[in-house]
Amino acid sequence: MIDASALWWRIELLGGDVGRRWHELASAWKLHLEDDYCTFNDLHAMLAHVGARDWRAASRLENALLRSHAQHGRYGETTPLVGLAACRAIIAFGRGYYARASELIGALPASAHRLGGSHAQRNLLYLTRLEAGRRLRRSTRLEAA
Fold it and tell me: Where are the domains of the chain?
């Protein structure tokens, strides 16, 4: 599910369309909305919910992340430090709030690598920020025309 979330997000960032696949994937992630297990998983679950435009599930996951502050261990540390802002950036991007998405990703601390995963998987946030900037510039040019 992690790999599918990352791959499909990348495809859509490049202008592709994965269609109904998002809905199937988001349904599978719904079983793990409140696992309180791994910030890396939460980010990929958020990609699926936003990709499927399932704002209710995205909100439920965001609320679960807000409650994670009480968790002890690595999850309780990485979620408030990185995971919550990263997931909020994905929500903002999905809703078309590109400036906000870019701002949230840009404000992530240098320790954002603590999310885990490979460089390619973590690079997804950087690619999202780049695309947010492109879309902002495109909409600015359209408004000026």
Answer: 2-144
Going by pLDDT thresholds of 50, 70 and 90, the confidence category of residue 135 is very high
The angle, 0 to 180 degrees and rounded to 10, between the axes of the packed helices 98-106 and 84-94 is 160
Q: Which residue has the tokens 């793990």?
A: 32
What b-and-e string marks burial along 108-118, b requiring 16 or more CB atoms within 10 Å of the CB?
A: beeebebbebe
User: In a 3-state reduction of DSSP, which class is residue 116?
Assistant: coil
Residue 27, CB-side half-sphere exposure with 13 Å CA sphere = 5
* pTM exceeding 0.85: yes
Cα–Cα distances in angstroms (integers) from residue 72 to residues 27, 32, 62, 85, 87, in the given order: 28, 19, 18, 19, 20
